[in-house]
Amino acid sequence: MPARIIDGKSLAASIRQRVAIEVAAYQHEVGRVPALHVLLVGEDPGSMIYVRHKERDANEVGMQGRVLRLPESTTEQQLLGLISELNADRAVNAILVQLPLPESIRASRVLEAVDPQKDVDGFHPKNVGALWSGLPALTPCTPLGCMRLLQEAKVKTKGARALVVGRSNIVGKPMAALLLAEHATVTMAHSRTVDLAERCREADILVAAIGRPKMISGDWLKAGAAVIDVGMNRDQDGRLCGDVDFSSAAEIAACITPVPGGVGPMTRAMLLENTLSAARMQAGATRAPSA
Q: Do residues 203 and 244 make contact, with C-beta atoms less than 8 angstroms apart?
Protein backbone atom coordinates (compact mmCIF):
# COMPACT_ATOMS: atom_id res chain seq x y z
CA MET A 1 0.00 0.00 0.00
CA PRO A 2 1.42 3.43 -0.95
CA ALA A 3 2.56 5.64 1.90
CA ARG A 4 0.23 8.15 3.52
CA ILE A 5 1.22 11.70 2.54
CA ILE A 6 1.92 14.02 5.48
CA ASP A 7 0.47 17.29 4.21
CA GLY A 8 2.64 20.09 5.58
CA LYS A 9 0.87 22.73 3.52
CA SER A 10 -2.51 21.99 5.10
CA LEU A 11 -1.12 21.77 8.63
CA ALA A 12 0.79 25.02 8.20
CA ALA A 13 -2.37 26.78 7.04
CA SER A 14 -4.24 25.70 10.18
CA ILE A 15 -1.33 26.86 12.34
CA ARG A 16 -1.33 30.27 10.66
CA GLN A 17 -5.06 30.62 11.34
CA ARG A 18 -4.54 29.85 15.01
CA VAL A 19 -1.57 32.21 15.27
CA ALA A 20 -3.65 35.02 13.75
CA ILE A 21 -6.25 34.55 16.49
CA GLU A 22 -3.57 34.54 19.17
CA VAL A 23 -1.89 37.63 17.71
CA ALA A 24 -5.19 39.50 18.01
CA ALA A 25 -5.46 38.40 21.64
CA TYR A 26 -1.87 39.50 22.27
CA GLN A 27 -2.58 42.91 20.75
CA HIS A 28 -5.66 43.33 22.96
CA GLU A 29 -3.63 42.46 26.06
CA VAL A 30 -0.34 44.26 25.33
CA GLY A 31 -1.47 47.11 23.10
CA ARG A 32 0.68 46.30 20.06
CA VAL A 33 1.33 43.39 17.73
CA PRO A 34 4.44 41.19 17.73
CA ALA A 35 7.16 42.57 15.45
CA LEU A 36 9.55 40.47 13.36
CA HIS A 37 12.59 42.13 11.76
CA VAL A 38 14.49 40.17 9.11
CA LEU A 39 17.99 41.33 8.15
CA LEU A 40 19.08 40.65 4.58
CA VAL A 41 22.62 41.53 3.52
CA GLY A 42 23.24 41.52 -0.22
CA GLU A 43 21.05 40.27 -3.05
CA ASP A 44 21.28 36.48 -3.01
CA PRO A 45 18.28 35.45 -5.20
CA GLY A 46 17.16 32.60 -2.96
CA SER A 47 17.45 34.70 0.18
CA MET A 48 15.46 37.52 -1.39
CA ILE A 49 12.58 35.11 -2.06
CA TYR A 50 12.75 33.62 1.44
CA VAL A 51 12.65 36.97 3.25
CA ARG A 52 9.78 38.21 1.09
CA HIS A 53 7.77 35.14 2.13
CA LYS A 54 8.63 35.67 5.80
CA GLU A 55 7.59 39.31 5.66
CA ARG A 56 4.32 38.43 3.94
CA ASP A 57 3.54 35.57 6.33
CA ALA A 58 4.02 37.81 9.38
CA ASN A 59 1.83 40.56 8.01
CA GLU A 60 -0.91 38.13 6.96
CA VAL A 61 -1.37 36.91 10.56
CA GLY A 62 -1.50 40.45 11.90
CA MET A 63 2.11 40.81 13.02
CA GLN A 64 4.47 43.54 11.93
CA GLY A 65 6.82 41.94 9.45
CA ARG A 66 9.69 44.06 8.19
CA VAL A 67 12.73 43.27 6.05
CA LEU A 68 15.81 45.45 6.54
CA ARG A 69 17.70 45.20 3.25
CA LEU A 70 21.39 46.03 3.53
CA PRO A 71 23.92 46.35 0.68
CA GLU A 72 26.56 43.71 -0.01
CA SER A 73 29.16 46.25 1.12
CA THR A 74 27.80 46.25 4.69
CA THR A 75 30.61 45.56 7.14
CA GLU A 76 30.47 43.18 10.06
CA GLN A 77 30.65 46.08 12.50
CA GLN A 78 27.79 47.88 10.78
CA LEU A 79 25.63 44.76 10.95
CA LEU A 80 26.52 44.20 14.61
CA GLY A 81 25.64 47.82 15.34
CA LEU A 82 22.21 47.40 13.75
CA ILE A 83 21.58 44.20 15.71
CA SER A 84 22.52 46.03 18.92
CA GLU A 85 19.94 48.71 18.13
CA LEU A 86 17.24 46.09 17.46
CA ASN A 87 18.14 44.22 20.65
CA ALA A 88 17.57 47.42 22.64
CA ASP A 89 14.32 48.33 20.87
CA ARG A 90 11.43 47.00 22.97
CA ALA A 91 9.10 47.34 19.99
CA VAL A 92 11.10 44.64 18.16
CA ASN A 93 10.28 41.16 19.42
CA ALA A 94 12.00 38.93 16.89
CA ILE A 95 15.24 39.22 14.92
CA LEU A 96 16.19 36.90 12.08
CA VAL A 97 19.47 37.23 10.19
CA GLN A 98 19.03 35.66 6.78
CA LEU A 99 21.84 33.29 5.85
CA PRO A 100 24.13 33.03 3.99
CA LEU A 101 25.98 36.26 4.77
CA PRO A 102 28.73 37.73 2.60
CA GLU A 103 32.11 36.04 3.12
CA SER A 104 33.47 39.18 4.79
CA ILE A 105 31.03 38.76 7.70
CA ARG A 106 31.44 36.00 10.28
CA ALA A 107 28.05 34.36 10.67
CA SER A 108 28.94 32.92 14.08
CA ARG A 109 29.77 36.36 15.44
CA VAL A 110 26.55 37.82 14.09
CA LEU A 111 24.29 35.04 15.38
CA GLU A 112 25.86 35.31 18.85
CA ALA A 113 25.07 39.04 18.86
CA VAL A 114 21.29 38.54 18.63
CA ASP A 115 19.46 38.74 21.97
CA PRO A 116 18.59 35.09 22.80
CA GLN A 117 15.04 36.16 23.69
CA LYS A 118 14.63 37.61 20.19
CA ASP A 119 16.49 34.82 18.38
CA VAL A 120 13.55 33.23 16.56
CA ASP A 121 15.90 31.06 14.49
CA GLY A 122 17.08 29.39 17.71
CA PHE A 123 20.73 29.63 16.64
CA HIS A 124 22.18 31.53 19.62
CA PRO A 125 24.49 29.33 21.75
CA LYS A 126 22.30 30.01 24.78
CA ASN A 127 19.23 28.63 22.99
CA VAL A 128 21.22 25.69 21.61
CA GLY A 129 22.43 24.84 25.11
CA ALA A 130 18.94 25.12 26.56
CA LEU A 131 17.57 22.80 23.87
CA TRP A 132 20.15 20.10 24.62
CA SER A 133 19.61 20.56 28.37
CA GLY A 134 15.86 20.08 28.07
CA LEU A 135 15.10 23.65 29.10
CA PRO A 136 12.55 26.01 27.49
CA ALA A 137 14.11 27.79 24.52
CA LEU A 138 13.41 29.23 21.10
CA THR A 139 14.01 26.24 18.83
CA PRO A 140 15.13 26.18 15.16
CA CYS A 141 12.07 26.34 12.95
CA THR A 142 12.70 23.47 10.56
CA PRO A 143 13.27 20.74 13.19
CA LEU A 144 10.32 22.09 15.17
CA GLY A 145 8.18 21.80 12.05
CA CYS A 146 9.42 18.23 11.48
CA MET A 147 8.32 17.25 14.98
CA ARG A 148 4.89 18.73 14.41
CA LEU A 149 4.57 16.75 11.18
CA LEU A 150 5.40 13.53 13.06
CA GLN A 151 2.78 14.41 15.65
CA GLU A 152 0.22 15.16 12.94
CA ALA A 153 0.88 11.74 11.40
CA LYS A 154 0.57 10.15 14.87
CA VAL A 155 4.02 8.61 14.58
CA LYS A 156 5.12 6.96 17.83
CA THR A 157 8.49 8.36 18.86
CA LYS A 158 8.85 6.75 22.29
CA GLY A 159 11.24 3.82 21.93
CA ALA A 160 11.44 4.23 18.15
CA ARG A 161 14.72 4.02 16.27
CA ALA A 162 15.26 7.40 14.62
CA LEU A 163 17.95 8.24 12.09
CA VAL A 164 18.81 11.84 11.25
CA VAL A 165 20.80 12.04 8.01
CA GLY A 166 22.64 15.36 8.14
CA ARG A 167 24.53 17.04 10.96
CA SER A 168 24.06 20.77 10.39
CA ASN A 169 23.50 23.17 13.27
CA ILE A 170 20.35 24.36 11.52
CA VAL A 171 18.54 21.03 11.11
CA GLY A 172 20.42 17.83 11.94
CA LYS A 173 21.72 18.51 15.44
CA PRO A 174 18.58 20.22 16.84
CA MET A 175 16.45 17.53 15.18
CA ALA A 176 18.35 14.89 17.13
CA ALA A 177 17.83 16.81 20.36
CA LEU A 178 14.08 17.09 19.80
CA LEU A 179 13.73 13.40 19.00
CA LEU A 180 15.71 12.48 22.11
CA ALA A 181 13.40 14.67 24.17
CA GLU A 182 10.50 12.58 22.84
CA HIS A 183 12.24 9.36 23.95
CA ALA A 184 13.40 8.12 20.55
CA THR A 185 16.65 6.21 20.23
CA VAL A 186 18.55 8.53 17.92
CA THR A 187 21.41 7.94 15.52
CA MET A 188 23.02 10.72 13.50
CA ALA A 189 24.47 9.99 10.08
CA HIS A 190 26.00 12.06 7.30
CA SER A 191 27.69 11.84 3.91
CA ARG A 192 30.72 10.06 5.37
CA THR A 193 28.79 7.45 7.34
CA VAL A 194 29.93 3.93 6.46
CA ASP A 195 27.12 1.81 4.98
CA LEU A 196 24.56 4.60 5.17
CA ALA A 197 21.95 2.53 3.35
CA GLU A 198 22.04 -0.14 6.05
CA ARG A 199 21.69 2.46 8.79
CA CYS A 200 18.61 3.81 7.00
CA ARG A 201 17.06 0.34 6.83
CA GLU A 202 17.19 0.13 10.64
CA ALA A 203 15.20 3.33 11.20
CA ASP A 204 11.54 3.50 12.22
CA ILE A 205 11.76 7.27 11.70
CA LEU A 206 14.07 8.74 9.07
CA VAL A 207 14.74 12.46 8.75
CA ALA A 208 16.66 13.29 5.57
CA ALA A 209 18.54 16.59 5.71
CA ILE A 210 21.72 15.96 3.76
CA GLY A 211 21.16 18.26 0.77
CA ARG A 212 21.59 15.72 -2.03
CA PRO A 213 18.77 15.24 -4.53
CA LYS A 214 17.00 11.85 -4.31
CA MET A 215 19.96 10.31 -2.49
CA ILE A 216 17.81 8.01 -0.36
CA SER A 217 15.82 5.52 -2.41
CA GLY A 218 13.01 3.22 -1.39
CA ASP A 219 15.29 0.18 -1.06
CA TRP A 220 17.18 2.05 1.68
CA LEU A 221 14.08 2.19 3.88
CA LYS A 222 12.61 -0.08 6.51
CA ALA A 223 9.11 -1.20 5.57
CA GLY A 224 6.58 0.95 7.41
CA ALA A 225 9.02 3.73 8.30
CA ALA A 226 8.00 7.35 8.75
CA VAL A 227 10.01 9.58 6.41
CA ILE A 228 10.50 13.32 6.86
CA ASP A 229 12.26 14.85 3.85
CA VAL A 230 13.88 18.20 4.65
CA GLY A 231 15.74 18.43 1.34
CA MET A 232 15.01 21.19 -1.16
CA ASN A 233 16.93 20.49 -4.34
CA ARG A 234 16.60 20.55 -8.11
CA ASP A 235 16.73 17.32 -10.09
CA GLN A 236 18.40 16.92 -13.48
CA ASP A 237 15.27 18.32 -15.13
CA GLY A 238 15.25 21.39 -12.90
CA ARG A 239 12.25 20.30 -10.85
CA LEU A 240 12.07 20.65 -7.09
CA CYS A 241 12.83 17.44 -5.23
CA GLY A 242 13.92 16.27 -1.81
CA ASP A 243 16.78 14.19 -0.47
CA VAL A 244 14.50 11.14 -0.77
CA ASP A 245 13.40 9.57 -4.04
CA PHE A 246 9.71 10.07 -3.40
CA SER A 247 8.26 7.61 -5.92
CA SER A 248 10.24 4.60 -4.71
CA ALA A 249 10.10 5.60 -1.02
CA ALA A 250 6.33 5.97 -1.10
CA GLU A 251 6.06 2.27 -1.96
CA ILE A 252 7.90 1.25 1.22
CA ALA A 253 7.22 3.90 3.89
CA ALA A 254 4.09 4.11 6.02
CA CYS A 255 4.02 7.89 5.75
CA ILE A 256 6.16 10.50 4.00
CA THR A 257 6.39 14.24 3.46
CA PRO A 258 6.31 15.51 -0.13
CA VAL A 259 8.67 18.08 -1.66
CA PRO A 260 7.36 20.68 -2.09
CA GLY A 261 4.43 20.87 0.32
CA GLY A 262 5.92 19.12 3.33
CA VAL A 263 8.58 20.59 5.60
CA GLY A 264 8.90 23.94 3.79
CA PRO A 265 5.50 25.40 4.74
CA MET A 266 5.95 24.15 8.30
CA THR A 267 9.27 25.96 8.68
CA ARG A 268 7.55 29.23 7.86
CA ALA A 269 4.65 28.48 10.20
CA MET A 270 7.05 27.70 13.05
CA LEU A 271 8.73 31.07 12.55
CA LEU A 272 5.38 32.72 13.25
CA GLU A 273 4.90 30.61 16.37
CA ASN A 274 8.42 31.46 17.55
CA THR A 275 7.79 35.17 16.98
CA LEU A 276 4.61 35.03 19.05
CA SER A 277 6.39 33.03 21.76
CA ALA A 278 9.24 35.57 21.87
CA ALA A 279 6.78 38.44 22.16
CA ARG A 280 4.91 36.74 24.98
CA MET A 281 8.16 36.00 26.82
CA GLN A 282 9.26 39.62 26.55
CA ALA A 283 5.85 40.96 27.58
CA GLY A 284 5.95 38.73 30.64
CA ALA A 285 9.42 39.97 31.55
CA THR A 286 8.27 43.56 31.05
CA ARG A 287 5.29 43.15 33.36
CA ALA A 288 7.09 41.10 36.02
CA PRO A 289 8.51 43.96 38.17
CA SER A 290 5.06 45.45 38.78
CA ALA A 291 3.33 42.13 39.43
A: no
Active site residues: 54, 98, 121
What the chain holds in terms of domains, given with CATH numbers, is 28-117 (3.40.50.10860), 141-264 (3.40.50.720)
pLDDT digits (tens, 9 = 90+) for 47-58: 999 999 999 999
Q: Which amino acid is at 265?
A: P
C-alpha span between 40 and 176 (Å, rounded): 29
User: Does the pTM of the predicted model rise above 0.85?
Assistant: yes
Cα–Cα separations (whole angstroms), residue 275 to 22, 110, 138: 12, 19, 9
Question: Which residues, other chains included, contact 176 with Cβ-Cβ below 8 Å and sequence gap of 6+?
Answer: 164, 186, 188
